[in-house]
């Protein structure tokens, strides 16, 4: 049996303590009144509309536009997204259900705005976007001028389609434009003038400038390219979708609409947070009283598991984007913590059984952790499978879980995504972290602390013998 060295306990404990602190408190610096967030903490959690309050709306094409294509729906989605960003609504969920031709949109109540009118916001989002091409760009505007002061070249109706592509010769992403006959002549004249004068032709969605490319050649055949400003395929496709969205020939209508009070959601969040803290404190007291020293190790690991879950929600890790936390998501965290407690209870009961059978401390710890692993593994894998199924069945169509399970769950409507998906996400994260903290770190700390002479009494591990055993 390979022994765990004494310093391991201190190394693991310090790592968990530091990680827990930064995962909860975060880290930011100030330059005057400007705050720069380096590590996101609990205060940076993006709360869902069921907590912060907000709007849940589903758009569908009007009856006269029932046969819209997938590209047109994607364009409409980008149009709505553009309008949200223009209104500084950046915490939103928006996705397309291609099967039923619906665009599902959720966005939170505007923070600190007592006059927020959700019906007016939905109306503005669903209005047809005005796409225009204009001579010059925002940098040419004098104080007090608006985009309408720039000479108009084309409107969205002059663009047949836009598509993202890759230029093999220049090794860069581009957006190709195909103009209608109505726009070909106007664009030829405008590009000739801009090229001669070293000017730009900007593209606007309503009053938001979405691109301002420099004109490098005269476009006379109705086929143009926008290049030089895209870092990847997604960015190029995003612009193409916005252009297509502004040129949509159909009208969106509101299929369903609902709101939730932010006061109700915040109250439920605070109540669950207080209940969670109290429950964790009670669990810590009970598990320490029952299992003594291994119980202390279990509480430390549980704290690390909770911190890891918060880190996965806030975007603490560079490879993971922040996640919107809903009330069911909080329930997922609590259930995952319960799984972590269960894992430690199973292990510690095994250790007590081995001590009662007369085995040494080292033997009891080794056999206890080994025999408990299979039961813990089976339970956690089952829960992880359930969490992935929930994420696949109730997730957005472009989520990895939905893509994997599409052949099985094609009959599930995506309008239920959001809150139940958050439950599956936090549960899945918690179960994965339970393997790390509930099994690995608990074992390392317990095996390490048992090497100290002061902790060689079986009573510290739930045994009844009081004599002190020698190391080894």
How would you briefly describe this protein structure?
49% of the residues lie in helices and 18% in strands. By secondary structure, it is of the alpha+beta class.
How would you sum up this structure, described in words?
The chain has helices at residues 7-25, 49-52, 70-86, 118-126, 181-197, 233-246, 262-291, 293-314, 327-356, 361-394, 400-405, 419-449, and strands at 27-31, 34-39, 46-47, 54-61, 93-97, 102-108, 131-135, 152-155, 159-167, 172-179, 201-205, 208-211, 223-227, 252-260, 324-325. It is an alpha+beta fold. The protein has 2 domains: 7-42 and 261-461, Multidrug efflux transporter AcrB transmembrane domain (Multidrug efflux transporter AcrB transmembrane fold); 62-260, 2-Layer Sandwich (Gyrase A, domain 2). A 4-stranded antiparallel sheet has the order 5-6-4-14. A 4-stranded antiparallel sheet has the order 8-7-11-12. Strands 9-10-13 form a 3-stranded antiparallel sheet. The termini are close together. Residues 412-417 and 467-472 have low confidence and may be disordered.
